[in-house]
Design goal:
Elements (H helix, E strand, L loop, with lengths): L2 E2 H12 L14 E7 L3 H12 L4 E4 L11 E2 L7 E2 L12 H8 L4 E3 L5 E4 L2 E2 L2 H22 L19 H13 L8 H6 L7 E3 L3 H8 L5 E2 L4 E6 L4 E5 L2 E10 L3 H6 L3 E3 L4 H8 L6 E7 L12 E4 L8 E3 L7 E7 H10 L1 H16 L1 H5 L4 E3 L22 H5 L6 E3 L12 H18 L3 E2 L19
Parallel strand pairs: 1-21, 2-3, 2-13, 3-10, 7-16, 11-14, 13-20
Antiparallel strand pairs: 4-5, 6-9, 7-8, 11-12, 12-13, 15-18, 15-19, 16-17, 17-18
Helix pairs in contact: 1-2, 2-14, 4-5
Length: 462
């Protein structure tokens, strides 16, 4: 049976409302309609879409859990915290937020704006306005540069007179936003990024949400794909547990994993695709999570705090996460990458130094248990979010092009929501639609024949 898009969307809505079942634990199938590689947000979205079209799917995941870059840690501390992505965006259009509410999750908006610290004191209202004005000027300069004929780095077009706010502005627009310094970031890519101010959090954890949404999908965990044989007719995926024959495949691994050669392709993956992925390498963004009982920093629940810094050797703090005693000191860009390479001890030492600088040694002495993430060292991820190098923005569209019966998905393939779980989810649905069309399981309905009421009436002759 071939399902029309209208019927398919109805089925998708019905599928989302079904009771949540346990993840399938059956042996790896030998044959499916579509195989999905990777059980992150994009892979789960793709699998749900294929299942809604009544087609057989399996998701193969190298890790031992669902989530990809969305992992909620529920064991280190007495409250959950997200080790990777922690925000969703665009509540008016994001289907994940609706699905989260339907599944009974607590979905709450992030605090609006950030608190600014200047040394040991809070910024005054006028100083905060100066910082916001500097951000506006910097963003405007990047937007104007993006309309030029040649792409350039964001750093090369920044106003030269940002003064005391230059470091904080560069950190917020670069390392904090994209995981890369502005000198490594395409002005066009930055300018085309959809507004992400309306951040939405999930009290139970974004990783917990992704796992819940994936419970209905047949996912084979700890099953890395080692080789993909592809053509314009079918696909074969080889794993340590056996070979899967499919009519199409959806690959959701990160750009760094794709270019690493961890998955072999026969024939080789096209150079055009690899070149595109190499221009969309992952930035660096890590959390240094600390338990600070008694709220020695005097901050509110879920407060976001940054400092006036004269360089990008700085951080962003998410304080009292979910009303708990956990505070996350986030580092990114080249400084964050270098710090992560030095290991957990160096990361914790920096975080305590940073807290001491802003709140005093007594606050830093209150730190109890700690935990850090090191996403760059994860062989299954190799970094944080994708970010285009100057001249590479068009690579996102190239990366989304089909390779025979293989379709790529993930946040790196989204032209405006790159770097977000929202973009990953939407890309998974897009790739699933394309794969279903390729195998003849989904057809767009013809446009409705205009009726007298819908035809544009011709203007009367003068």
């Amino acid at each position: 049976m071939t399902i029309t898009r209208r019927g398919f969307l109805s089925a998708s809505a019905g599928f989302a409302a079904m009771p949540v079942l346990r993840a399938a634990a059956a042996p790896l199938p030998r044959e499916v309609d579509i195989v999905v590689i990777g059980a992150g947000a994009a892979g789960i979205a793709a699998a749900r879409r294929v299942m809604a079209a009544n087609r057989k799917v399996v998701v193969v995941e190298a890790a031992s859990q669902i989530g990809g870059r969305c992992i909620t840690d529920t064991t280190t501390f007495d409250v959950p915290f997200d080790r990777g992505a922690r925000w969703m965006h665009n509540p008016e259009t994001n289907p994940m937020i609706r699905l989260a509410r339907n599944a009974g999750f607590d979905v709450v908006p992030a605090p609006s704006g950030q608190k600014m610290r200047i040394g040991r004191r809070n910024a005054r209202a006028g100083e905060t306005e100066e910082f916001l004005a500097a951000l506006v000027r910097a963003n405007r300069a990047i937007d104007e540069a993006s309309r030029g004929k040649l792409d350039t780095s964001c750093a090369s077009v920044l106003p030269k007179d940002l003064g005391d706010w230059a470091g904080a502005a560069e950190f917020m627009l670069g390392a904090s936003f994209a995981g890369k310094d502005l000198k490594e970031l395409s002005a066009i890519d930055k300018a085309r990024a959809q507004d992400r101010n309306a951040a939405i959090g999930c009290r139970q954890g974004l990783g917990t949400l992704i796992s819940k949404l994936g419970e209905q999908a047949p996912v084979a965990l700890s099953t890395p794909a080692s080789r993909i044989v592809w053509s314009n007719r079918d696909v074969s995926v080889e794993t340590q547990s056996g070979k899967i024959a499919a009519r199409a495949a959806i690959i959701t691994v990160s750009t760094n994993v794709l270019t690493s050669g961890a998955i072999k392709f026969a024939p080789d993956i096209p150079k055009r695709t690899l070149d595109a992925a190499s221009k969309l390498t992952l930035g660096s963004y890590d959390h240094i999570v600390m338990q600070l009982p008694g709220n020695p920093l005097g901050l509110s629940r879920d407060d976001i705090l940054i400092e006036q810094s004269n360089s990008t050797r700085t951080a962003l703090m998410c304080a009292n996460i979910g009303g708990s005693s956990l505070c996350s000191i986030d580092v990114g860009g080249s400084f964050g990458r270098d710090l992560s390479e030095q290991g957990e001890k160096a990361m914790v030492a920096f975080a305590k130094e940073w807290i001491t600088k802003l709140f005093g040694s007594e606050a830093a002495a209150a730190v109890q248990k700690t935990s850090v993430t090191r996403w760059n060292a994860s062989p299954l991820i190799m970094g944080a979010m994708s970010a285009s190098s100057p001249g590479g923005q068009l690579s996102r569209k190239v990366l989304a092009e089909p390779i025979g019966n293989v379709f790529l998905a993930g946040e790196a393939t989204h032209e405006t929501l790159w770097g977000t779980v929202d973009g990953a989810w939407e890309s998974g649905e897009r790739a699933a639609d394309a794969a279903l069309r390729k195998i003849g399981a989904l057809k767009d309905e013809p446009a409705d024949v205009p009726t007298q009421s819908t035809k544009r009436r011709r203007a009367p002759r003068q």
